[in-house]
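Question: Now follow the chain.
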Amino acid sequence: MSTEEQRWRLDQLTEQQGAITRAINAVTEGRWTGSDSLEAWLVALSPPLAGQLSPRPPLYERPPPPLEEIGQPHIRWIGSPNHWPGRAAETVCAIVIHTMAGSLAGSDSWLQDPAAQVSYHFGIGLRGQQHQYVHLSDSSWANGILETGHTWPCGPASPNRQTVSIGTEDLGSAAQPVTDEQFRATLEVANLALRTFPSICWLLGHHDISPRTRPSCPGNRWRQSGRFAELAARLNLQTRS
């Protein structure tokens, strides 16, 4: 097979995977649209069916997140080798907020080390810096495994496959407040994640997934301060607590 043929096959498979993923998300959310539907899924699996199916009108449309005063992110790419390519056709259902237990610069260095075996999609500094370590189309390694007592709402698949993870700088202090700059920057990248994956309906903390080993992540700096609830309200997302 020639290089051109291989590239064509890869492009076709990528297009099919995208259509299937959109269709699965539509089915999961109980909605039907012309481009995000079971019909699109069937066409992706069998292109000769194109033009022979009649898409249903949507049963409903998800309300968009409130956009007033949500700016566009200004992201600096850092990159991390610690991730899985792709999402394994899993539906992305949640944004997970973490506290770094350290600095943004420290995370930049640590997450670029293969020995760390951990990564976020984004890291947000106290001054509002926005660093990205893993592409949204790939699975970061931030959320570990489901532990006893978890409140994970999205089924048995790996939480790493089904989430967008955001680490927030705290300079190693659980008492470090979430600054206004950090909140706005977190809101911007979370809104980007939501627009990339309309299937997201939850805002979670790491403790919702790993209550035994991460009971204080993202901690009171997000929870008791009201910042977590405010973030969920601005994004129109559900929370577990």
Remarks:
- The helical segments are 3-29, 38-45, 104-111, 180-196, 206-209, 227-235.
- The chain has a mean pLDDT of 85.
